[in-house]
Amino acid sequence: MESAPLSKPLLTVVTPVYNGERHTARCLESVRTQSYPHIEHLVIDGGSSDGTARIVQAACAKSDERTSPEGSTRGLRLVSERDAGVYDAMSKGVRQARGEYVHILNSDDRYADPEALAAAVALMEAERLDICHGRARQVDADGRPVCEFGRDVDFRSLLKKMRVAHPTVVVRRSVYERHGAFSIGFRIAADHEFLLRVWNKAKVGFLPRMQVLMEIGGLSTVNGNVQRAYRESMGAAIIHGRNPLAAAARCSYEILKHRLIRSRAFAAGKPRLPAVGTELDQGLAPSGP
After folding, report:
1. Residues near 277 by Cβ (< 8 Å), separated by ≥ 6?
2. pLDDT band at 46 (very low <50, low <70, confident <90, very high)
3. Closest C-alpha to 47, from 81, 15, 22
4. In degrees rounded to 5, what are phi and psi of residue 28?
5. Which of 24, 27, 2, 3 is nearest to 103 (CA)?
6. 19-46 burial by CB neighbour count: b if 16+ within 10 A, else e?
7. How are beta strands 38-45 and 73-80 bridged, if at all?
8. Which of 85, 111, 174, 257 is the most exposed place for a label (fewest CB within 10 A)?
9. Residue 78: which of 67, 65, 66, 93 has the closest Cα?
């Protein structure tokens, strides 16, 4: 007997993880408690050596036993195998996604409230968007806010700097099918390169609400990765049309600015630093190239 068609489109949440046992259960619960009724959750584990896989397997068993509310679809699936890094894991999840829409939620992130996905899908359906993005809040390990980021931007602004909160980005799966997923040639800034690649080829909308809480400690928030992040973003911008001299000048400026913010933070006894591209990080940004 064929199942009845879904009243709302299926959305796939992809969670890449490696040795993330400290955060994984919280992330899974954040997805499970979303009010949007049709979600498949793919956890792409890079062969963790800690208890990550066991946590997800136990949640999968509970998901199989739990009866979904009438008219809803829920599913949790684990893929555990070695990969070439976080962007390879993201791309693997995108390729396996069945949903019309795809959202990537890292294992140390969670939704700001139970309506986050419902709000994104509602806007995408109403305006026939290919990409939707919103606001994110960076928090420390105790959940205390550090800064907020994510803004409505055009391609020219995105070419200068990554000002989109990628943890909030929901993409129509057909965009990935037409233009590809993430380039593993970028270790930190593949999200910026992907958005530059598709921005002018898709209908993009901004959702002015807090969507995701992002915990400090992710790839782009570790201070040792900051220079590489800016240099990779510079390379992505040049690939997609930015003047190389302007891109190099901007990169040098951003690295110097981050060092200044870091020194001020430590001088004030507040060594919690924002992620690359956040509004605190953008506070000294020039209006020029």
Report:
1. 149, 161, 162, 163, 220
2. very high
3. 81
4. -60, -40
5. 27
6. ebbbbbbebbebbbebebbbbbbbbbbb
7. parallel
8. 174
9. 93
Whole-prediction pTM: 0.88
Strand partners, 39: 11, 74
pLDDT in tens, 212-257: 999 886 555 555 678 888 999 999 999 999 999 999 999 998 888 8
What one-character-per-residue DSSP string does the chain give?
Answer: -PPPPPSS--EEEEEEESS-TTTHHHHHHHHHT-S-SEEEEEEEE---SSSHHHHHHHHHHHHHHSPPPTT-EEEEEEEE---SSHHHHHHHHHHH--SSEEEE--TTEEESSTTHHHHHHHHHHHHT-SEEEEEEEEE-TTS-EEEEE-----HHHHHHS--S-GGG-EEEHHHHHHH----TT-SS-HHHHHHHHHGGGS-EEEEEEEEEEEETTSGGGSGGGHHHHHHHHHHHHHHTT--HHHHHHHHHHHHHHHHHHHHHHHHTT----PPTTSHHHHTT--S--
Give the model confidence (pLDDT) of 167-182 as tens digits.
Answer: 999 999 999 999 999 9
Q: Which of 208, 278, 211 is nearest to 30 (CA)?
A: 211
What is the signed CA dihedral for 124, 129, 135, 139, rounded to 10 degrees? Answer: 80
User: Is the separation of the CB atoms in 179 and 197 below 8 Å?
Assistant: yes
